[in-house]
Amino acid sequence: MPGCELYVPWSVFGNATKNWKYHHDFYIEKQVSKKQVVSLRNTIALNSGAADNLSDQGTLIYHPEMVATALWKNRLTDNKSTQMLLNGYYGNELSDKLSFDVNMTFADNGVKPVDRLFINRNNTGVIRTAQFENSFEHRYQDYTAEIELYWKPKEKIAVTFGTAYQLKANHFDFPGSHQSFSNAQGYWLPSLTVRYKDFTISWSEKVESAATEGIQVQTDQSEPLYTRLQSFVTDNIVTRHARIEYRKYQQKYQFSAFLTIDNKDRSIGYQNWRNTDTGHETSQTYQSGPVTNYNGSVMFRYHFEKKGKWTYYTSSDVNSYTFQYYRVLNDNHNKVTVLGTFFTQEFSLNWNNLVGIVPKYELRWNRNLNTIQNNSDFSEATYKTHSVGIGLNINPVKRFSMETSYTLENRASGLRERQNYHILNTSLYYTLKNNSQLKLTGFDMLNQNNNNYWNTNSNNVSYSTSNTLKQYFLLGYIYKFKSVKQQ
Q1: What are residue 353's phi and psi, to 5 degrees?
Q2: What's the rounded Cα separation, in Å, for the pair 131 and 124?
Q3: Which residues in the chain come in under a pLDDT of 70?
Q4: How far apart are CA 70 and CA 59, in angstroms?
């Protein structure tokens, strides 16, 4: 049975970028009467960025049908984007209980990535490979007419109803590779918000153009072991958004909770084909089906009664979410749902506004679920991290003050290994007579800070670690300017 062995004996990567931006926002408003107002807004944003990505690598492949390759690549990318918005507004307060707004909006947006690829394969000379380049232009115009009605039948009840019609026109241009095309479609976009005391429920719809990062104009076969197929992901995406929220703020406690649901009628999926004999992989993005994502949060903070010179409070915060996407591997179709939860518990003690102690615990939990079961191409896994920490603040004592934090993090240090990381940061302040301060900070004083990443995708479980800016010290000077109140 033929086998494949691959390694990279040398590799050099580098990139250089340059960018420029222009932005202006013009707004004018006129009160035409006590209950009527008109306004005009114009926004223009121009962005241009250029990237020079260079890679020089050698790849040795031991396979009867493949040969060793030395590949030098230089990809030059120019990205230009434009955004223009013109909005006219009219508001009318018919009565204390009823008012309405009218908005007329025109938006013109565009992205134009220009791709140039130069290759030197096996030192045969540098050539431009236009057949692998991914250059195109996407411009779209939105014409929107919207009216919103505000009704307040009682003191603690408020209702907002909106309806809009949006015409979205898309224009795609593929110079030198494919024929340009355009399309236009109209959408009715309703919205409704009902507020009762501290409780709010809302519903709305919006439409957006497809994300252009899913477009691949030409099949890219510049890599010996990787091919990216053509993909034209150009359909608009309609999102239906629902939100339920409750907020209660008192002097002694604060409580808030919300749940959002976002349903999209289509999305962008990813499909791959892997040849285990040769090690070659082929990928493609495609227009996939509907997805529904959830996001919810609950926050509670309670202030205890003051005991002498001591004050206390406790705070709890939990956030959970789901995220869906489609993935096809070797013609096995799967819909992935990612579950995530982030929990924080904090307790604070403060003595006479001089010394503060804040213990804290954090838990992060993630899991991926698959619609396809008992298939080796898709695995399910759970990953969690724990961190326990404490903060200490000492306010000025003989002009000296200190802030310090210590965190013990238990997280991945390999595919199956875990490790404890001790992170300690400390800042020392000295206040001068003019109330300015000298500040000396030591970051990662135990020299253990690492950036670790653990992920599950299809049948891959990946782990990577990268060095961050570890132990270092910073000396600074802080001067607070006094504000002058106008009489």
Answers
A1: 55, 25
A2: 18
A3: 1-17, 51-69, 458-459, 482-487
A4: 6
